[in-house]
């Protein structure tokens, strides 16, 4: 591996120093917990243990006598999310794979799993971010039985992977591995889908045509194929070494997928503390692994949602990372991938062109990733990210790995020496309106700077009404406030993208500024998102008025207004919403911390 890039080295040293106390406290707790649960059968009362294996069938005797490691399965299976539908068939197969190596497996628990694609623009989206805390809590409940020597995490999509990781890190003395199910086959070309969406926003096609187009895109079991939050999750888990190498984008139902699933369980059984290659999750997820996740996100133009998720799951491991760190990394990490919505091809095309293995290899050669991390997928007696610069394949039905080689499609994947752009495309913008994120990798450079009078909204439905009435047909900065974690759960505002895209295509200078989120699938329109502090509680966005000139500039990192905010009082927030269960999530809203810390009520309450 090449010498570390100075920016990577600088940010790494800063995060290690900043995290020294919290990381030490976390590792001390994990060491204490490992000792307390070292011999789970001997320390567990017989009645408790009998309850735990009562329904284990042919595995009863092995669990009772601790004949081999027992793997706990935490599953986010449901039939509504296409990515998670394959998981319904996983537990029986994983139990068979475990028995092949003298181990056992039990479903330890299930977590909720909601799809932001289903709830976009709907009331349920206001539960979305906090579903991550619920998933983390559900993971902890499942693992609290202390019946397990390792953990198989079955989850893929938006809040699910961060939530599973946050929960399992509190049981970090156990080895853990994510077992993905893979993306669905490619549907209609992404440009065609995007074009129909915009035609619908313009009123030129009806709902029937729109639904037909969407159903041709999202059409079968597997992860949605655009490079949004779900697929960014998968990339990050590989950059952190928490998958088997190359496992992310192998499609469901294929022989290679099944071989990877089998190998994952065999590997989990081999890295428990009973063996010779103990790899606890607490040791795998350290400062360097977290930085690798961030670097991978920047190098591939991944979802902006991870500007919130990375700080949240890092905190669960005692690691403190902020947007200044991401911004500095972004200035040094080149953009190596153009995957829809940043490019034309989807994750299947990305994988075929060399995928994550190619990206890892290029980052290591450029000194832009840490090789010296403890991964779950490196062979016994070794460690390091270099193993993830390879791709899996079946050699006469036997799972093996091989070098990726050069990019198979330079329009989608490029080497670090000839990137799509020299930086990672995620900028921190700051000023008298707060701190926010701007994803430049999805925006053409001629739109990096927008300065225009603003129009204020407190609800995305009001934006749609103004758009339809023609009130936004001008240069405008659309400000949607009271969308932060404490206000309404910080929903994604992806439904605004087609409308603002129409205005942009008409030749207007348009930008979005919000304390809410945008989807990992969003792009095209300049946006300052996750504005912190949020409007609720007197953040600067609450002081803006219609007509104030707002400047958003990715080039100089500015988010500001020329208006004098010092003489104003905050606008009143809208009343708390109810229905769709939103009222029972009030405790999460009341306790949530700021977006830059991860927007988590659970982590704030725990003092982490």
TrEMBL record:
Catalytic activity as recorded in UniProt: 6-phospho-D-gluconate = 2-dehydro-3-deoxy-6-phospho-D-gluconate + H2O
PROSITE patterns per UniProt: ILVD_EDD_1, ILVD_EDD_2
Annotated region (Disordered), positions in chain: 561-581
InterPro entries per record: 6-phosphgluc_deHydtase, Dihydro-acid_dehy_C, DiOHA_6PGluconate_deHydtase_CS, ILV_EDD_C, ILV_EDD_N, IlvD/EDD_N
Keywords per UniProt: 4Fe-4S, Carbohydrate metabolism, Gluconate utilization, Iron, Iron-sulfur, Lyase, Metal-binding
Binding locations of [4Fe-4S] cluster: 157, 224
Domain Dihydroxy-acid/6-phosphogluconate dehydratase N-terminal: start-end pairs: 69-377
Biochemical pathway: Carbohydrate metabolism; Entner-Doudoroff pathway
This enzyme's EC code(s): 4.2.1.12
Domain of life assignment: Bacteria
Dihydroxy-acid/6-phosphogluconate dehydratase C-terminal domain sequence ranges: 412-598
GO molecular function terms listed in the Swiss-Prot or TrEMBL record: phosphogluconate dehydratase activity
Cofactor: [4Fe-4S] cluster
Note on how the cofactor is bound: Binds 1 [4Fe-4S] cluster.
Keyword Kinase: no
HAMAP family on file: Edd
Task of the protein: Catalyzes the dehydration of 6-phospho-D-gluconate to 2-dehydro-3-deoxy-6-phospho-D-gluconate.
Family: Belongs to the IlvD/Edd family.
Official protein name in the record: Phosphogluconate dehydratase
Organism listed in the record: Alteraurantiacibacter lauratis
């Amino acid at each position: 591996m090449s010498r570390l890039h100075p920016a990577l080295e600088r940010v790494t040293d800063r995060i290690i120093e900043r995290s020294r106390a919290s990381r030490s406290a976390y590792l001390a707790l994990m060491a204490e917990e490992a000792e307390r649960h070292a011999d789970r059968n001997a320390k567990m009362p017989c009645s408790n243990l009998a309850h735990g294996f009562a329904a284990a069938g042919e595995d009863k005797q092995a669990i009772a006598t601790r004949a081999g490691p027992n793997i706990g399965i935490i599953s986010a299976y449901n039939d509504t999310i296409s990515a998670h539908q394959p998981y319904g068939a996983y537990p029986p197969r994983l139990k068979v794979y475990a028995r092949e190596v003298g181990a056992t497996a039990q479903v330890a628990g299930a977590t909720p799993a909601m799809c932001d694609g289903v709830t976009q623009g709907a009331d349920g989206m206001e539960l979305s971010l906090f579903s991550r805390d619920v998933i983390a809590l559900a993971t902890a409940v499942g693992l609290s039985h202390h019946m397990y020597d390792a953990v198989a995490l079955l989850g893929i999509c938006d809040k699910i992977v961060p939530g599973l990781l946050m929960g399992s890190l509190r049981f970090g003395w156990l080895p853990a591995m994510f077992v993905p199910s893979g993306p669905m086959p490619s549907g209609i070309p992404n440009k065609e889908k995007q074009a129909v969406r915009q035609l619908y926003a313009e009123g030129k096609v009806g709902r029937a045509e729109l639904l037909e187009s969407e159903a041709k895109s999202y059409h079968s079991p597997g992860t949605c194929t655009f490079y949004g939050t779900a697929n960014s999750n998968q990339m990050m888990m590989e950059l952190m070494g928490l998958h088997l190498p190359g496992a992310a984008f192998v499609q469901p139902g294929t022989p290679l997928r099944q071989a990877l699933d089998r190998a994952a369980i065999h590997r989990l059984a081999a890295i428990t503390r009973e063996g010779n290659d103990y790899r606890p999750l607490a040791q795998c997820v350290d400062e360097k692994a977290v930085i690798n996740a961030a670097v991978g996100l920047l190098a591939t133009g991944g979802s902006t949602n991870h500007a919130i998720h990375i700080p949240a799951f890092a905190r669960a491991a005692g690691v403190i990372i902020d947007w200044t760190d991401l911004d500095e990394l972004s200035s040094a990490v080149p953009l190596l991938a153009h995957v829809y919505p940043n490019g034309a091809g989807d994750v299947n095309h990305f994988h075929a062109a060399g995928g994550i293995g190619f990206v890892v290899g290029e980052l290591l050669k450029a000194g832009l990733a840490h090789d010296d991390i403890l991964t779950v997928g490196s062979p016994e007696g070794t460690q390091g990210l270099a193993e993830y610069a390879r791709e899996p394949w079946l050699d006469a039905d036997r799972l093996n790995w091989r070098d990726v080689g050069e990019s198979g499609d330079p329009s989608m994947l490029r080497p670090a020496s000839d990137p799509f752009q020299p930086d990672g495309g995620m900028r921190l913008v700051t000023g008298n309106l707060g701190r926010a994120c701007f994803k430049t990798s999805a925006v053409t450079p001629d739109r990096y700077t927008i300065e225009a009078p603003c129009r204020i909204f407190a609800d995305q439905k009001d934006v749609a009404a103004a758009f339809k009435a023609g009130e936004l047909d001008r240069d405008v900065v659309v400000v949607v406030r009271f969308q932060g974690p404490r206000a309404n759960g910080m929903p994604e505002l992806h439904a605004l993208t087609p409308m603002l895209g129409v205005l942009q295509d008409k030749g207007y200078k348009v930008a979005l500024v919000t304390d809410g989120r945008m989807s990992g699938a969003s792009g095209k329109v300049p946006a300052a998102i996750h504005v912190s502090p949020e409007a609720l509680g007197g953040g600067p966005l609450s002081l803006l008025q219609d007509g104030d000139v707002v400047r958003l500039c990715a080039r100089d990192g500015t988010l500001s207004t020329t208006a004098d905010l010092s003489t104003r009082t905050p606008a009143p927030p809208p009343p708390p919403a109810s229905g769709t269960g939103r009222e029972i999530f009030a405790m999460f809203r009341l306790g949530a911390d700021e977006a830059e810390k991860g927007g988590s009520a659970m982590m704030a309450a725990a003092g982490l």
